[in-house]
Amino acid sequence: MKEKIDQYFGITRSGSTYKRELTGGLTAFLAMSYVIFVNPIILGQAGMPQDAVFMSTILSSAIAMLIMGLWARFPLGLAPCMSMNAFFAYSVVLQMGKTWQEALASVLVASILFLILAISGVRSKIITAIPTTVKQAGTVGLGIFIAFVSFKNSGIIVPDEGMFIKFGGFDNPNVIIAFFGLLVAAFFLVRKNQYAVFLGMIGAALCGLFIRFGATMDWFNLSETVVAGLPQLPAGSPVVIPVEPMQAMLDETFLVAFKNLDKMLSLDSFIVILTFLFLDFFGTATTLSAAATQVSDIKSEKFEDNKRIYSADALGTFFGSLFGTSSLSTYIESVSGIIAGARTGLMSVVVAILFLLSAFFFPLLSLVTSAVTTPAMVVIGIFMMQNIRNIRWDGPFEEIIPAFLTIVMMPLTGSIALGLVLGFLSYEICMIFAKRTNEIPKAMHVISIISIAYLFTL
């Protein structure tokens, strides 16, 4: 059996060992496991039942990684993408007014389109057509948007009549929890610890538990409402058979996407689908490109031109929409497993098994509040912000203007889709002004027409 597994995954052939694959799998799991608890919090703000999202996150991630490991045979982890769940909750549901059921249907359609694009090879042509300046700016804008939302949800930023927003103040214990978690995450980031996100959340949760304990001991004068919103330990055992979240998923989110497909015929729904599609395959392309830079002995083309990798991503999103979660994507955090020595799909299988085992820790959701997730969201924003160096700020204004509009309009309008649309259109218009129309790819004209149509839906 051991020899068959070795031959199937090519462990010896790739210069790896069982120990390195298992170590890499554990490393990748710890680096990306925060999504298990953060995703339900974000989608819960869109009205989705957190218990159900917890289970759908685990199941869809495990299936996607089994596909990645057993079929693509590549060492990468997949889970609900932190930028796409933000788009799902804050843009599609809270801003555009779609129901979360309709949003799931949009994810389902986008996953099918993504799979077709991945298999046919059209994906690469679309990626090539979109200007680099807008692609990179989109990632930066997403990073700022995610951090901004997390600051708002934790109380660090609050509304202000005169200046629109202001600092929330340390009289709110959630602000203290969020900042303490950020300090912990920053400590481990500067020391190049690959678990910085995970440890930052643990630090925030421990800080929250201390404040809750202090309130019960009358050390702090906090209202019952404030105390109720603080992290708390599970009432019973932290390890249980996940019957409750599984039942919640089957009752409330399973196959809901199929039941709302008839609502996908409107223009604004079409734009939402295209945005999910764009974020999905562009996000995966960006992650694979970043992953390739981390491993010198694996060629970039092996990452970026592998149709099975993109297909695994699309299939993961497909199953995710059926179970009840937003789009899945390849996680840059999972590259930590490759850096730890993994080189085959066995690593992905190990991560999938660990994700399934984590379902038994469902009660720990009571520890995770918006303040506890702030370190994770901000660190992700920092990582995405690094793409700003790939934008030619000393280049022509026909590249600078679209990049600037894309970056600032995402957080300022609270709409990821609008930021991208304005980036696409301003690029096309500025290229026309610069008399460089012949340099605009034909596919970009189609994207611009769709973008104009989207503006009429606002």
From TrEMBL:
The keyword Endoplasmic reticulum is assigned to this record: no
One GO MF term: purine nucleobase transmembrane transporter activity
Cellular compartments per GO CC: endomembrane system; plasma membrane
Source superkingdom: Bacteria
Principal place of residence: membrane
Pfam families assigned: Xan_ur_permease
Topology class, membrane: Multi-pass membrane protein
Locations listed in the record: Endomembrane system
Keyword Kinase: no
Sequence intervals crossing the membrane: 21-46, 52-71, 78-97, 103-122, 134-152, 172-190, 197-215, 270-293, 314-332, 338-357, 364-388, 400-427
UniProt keyword annotations, A-Z: Membrane, Transmembrane, Transmembrane helix, Transport
Family the UniProt entry places it in: Belongs to the nucleobase:cation symporter-2 (NCS2) (TC 2.A.40) family. Azg-like subfamily.
Full protein name: Guanine permease
